[in-house]
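Lab notebook: predicted structure, single chain.

Context: the supervisor wants predicted structures on file for every construct in the current expression panel, including those that have not yet been purified. This is the next one on the list. No modifications to the sequence; it matches the entry in the shared construct table.
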Amino acid sequence: MATDVGLMAPVMFAEGLESVVRDSEQLSASVETLAADVRVTLAVSTLSGEPIQEQRGTLTPDNIEDFRPHPKAEERAVARAEELGLTVIKRGRFGITVSGPADLVREVCGTELVVQTNARFSDVRSTQEFSSSFAPLEPTDLFLVPQNSLTIPAAIDDSIDDFVFIPPPILFAPDPSPPAASFHNIGSGDIRHLLNVPNEFDGSGIRVGVVDTGFYEHPYYKANTFDYQPIATASAPDAYIDDHGHGTAITFNVFATAPGARVCGYKQTNPPQIALEDAADEEADIISCSWGYDREQVFPILQATILSIIADGVIVLFAAGNGHYAWPGSEPSVLSIGGAFWNEKHKLEASNYASGYLSSLFPGRRVPDVSGLCGERPKAIYIIMPTQPDNLMDRTLSGTPHPSFDETDDDDGWVGASGTSSATPQVAGIVAMMLQKARQIGRTLDTSDVRAILESSAVPITQGRNAMGFPAVGQPNVAVGWGLVDARAALAQV
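Prediction complete. Output recorded below exactly as produced.
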């Protein structure tokens, strides 16, 4: 049962969470912040007349246009939201995101709001799919959702079908490590060698959008004169702050393969589709995402947004997950990226840290399509990357011994990490080179073209098992897809 927060805020707690939060000044402050600005997406009446929230598992590139908001309904919904005192944050392609204090949102939606934590035990019906255990919490772990369902039928106006709450996604995050390591690891030179990256192309002229936790302006990026741009938006004006560390770190992998690309960092938003729309609206050629939801949990407004962005010609990549049955990594229209491990014997094998499986939601969908480079269990500490000093990743795994800890100080501004979080931007960099060459010869590549080229040119991997225990047998296989991407071979087919 959820319990009332009491004086802390006009919200409730999942059972067992209240005492944990009350004992922490930081967690208590986080709850107060959350309660002051609750985000909810209005699912507006659609052109087809059918609610978009009823389309889970049925949305495709061919039918998403039927589920755009009806223009008149959209205008009425905005007016009604503002009349009720809600603030309109974003008029998106498939929904309108609004915000307000918890007491107002609770009154408008007609439901209690519950403080929950991502990927931890929950008795709250709406978020049981996100749960596993109550481990030590960070303020960024907390979020607010309704008590019984993430979709609440709207009764405030005929123009609005539902109120939709989309929890923050799971970061497929690895762990920290030092710039110089005594253990087996790979650097940017190794990544270029193993992915067979030529010097003739570097991604120049291509805009790669990375959507993640933030983008600290690390001296590493400046010293190498990389075109690294944290993008401040109305929804995320503090894009240059990365208290978690994940976004700053994984961006290293784009530059490892495409050092001439312009990498624009879009800080994750609540809900997540806002950052994706911001990246698309600013004409990103490629969008790389190393996050998602476990157990193939699909949110139709987010799904429709992704499909629409892809239909506009943007190449969208998602990580397959680190032992997760991840969506949007399983979405058929995205490029799904898994992981291959270059071991101590200098042999390639499937990474036992990376996901690979047959989707239970999309018949015939094999995840991943292809793979980048990824470490192995227990922590996938494998690639040395820059990050914001003294952030969550930098602190959490400092100390000894490896492989459980990074053997460095907790504020050195470097992490040793990998997972499919790193493999995905590696492939994004290779796609940037493909688009660069295509433009030079007057060719346009869409997602299906890029997928076909990457698959047909990939290096087969026939050793090892992935995180689900599937063996790398045959090409393609569910351990690594078609295999490790080969940049030179892919470029030859452009």
